[in-house]
Amino acid sequence: MTEPGSHDFAVRGQRTVYSGAILALRVDQVEMPGGRIAEREVVEHHGAVAVVALDDRGRMAMVRQYRHPVGRRLLELPAGLLDGGPAEDPLTAAQRELAEEVDLAADSWQVLTDLVLSPGFTDEALRVYLARSLHALSPAERRDEEADMAVEWVALDDAVARVLAGDIVNATAVAGILAASAAVTGGAALRGTSAAWTDQPTALQSRKADHP
């Protein structure tokens, strides 16, 4: 038995249960401390990006979007998947989502926070950016759920209060709002857009590259 914190959880076998458009489910046989082999189900997912876009009045651009798994509309940050291939740059994707969802561009970009959203069963990870010096773009064409999206401007302090009141529950929005509050009102230092993203998912992109 190894000392706690030193075991190598080696994968001794693997099978794919499902492979779809935005996720895959695989089962890994993982060696536990003491030598037992245990199965661990892993949902492979695209990485994603989200944007806290703050205007010069301290308001953030948010979207109210229908989410079918929970059956209601949630107040969220502009966000989207990194599903453009292995070479897709996260910052470029964030700029695209800001334009497509809220018709905005920004001159100033910083990394706000990185998230692993539910590491007990999925490799899904997300990078949240802080965008400032905003300017409007021509309205984008939207379809499906996004055609029903409403844009709401929310003061940062109000957004924090709504997180704590349970009104804003989307995990990405909660993390982004609280991180933005720490950065803007507390002066916390932020990283540049070229900062390394340790947990950016690659398994699903590699799967799709191998089986286009």
Automatic annotation (TrEMBL):
PANTHER family: ADP-RIBOSE PYROPHOSPHATASE, UDP/ADP-SUGAR PYROPHOSPHATASE. It comes from the Bacteria. Residues 44-176 form the Nudix hydrolase domain. InterPro entries: NUDIX_hydrolase-like_dom_sf, NUDIX_hydrolase_dom. The keyword Hydrolase applies. CDD domains: NUDIX_ADPRase_Rv1700. Keywords: Hydrolase. Pfam families: NUDIX (PF00293). This is NUDIX domain-containing protein.
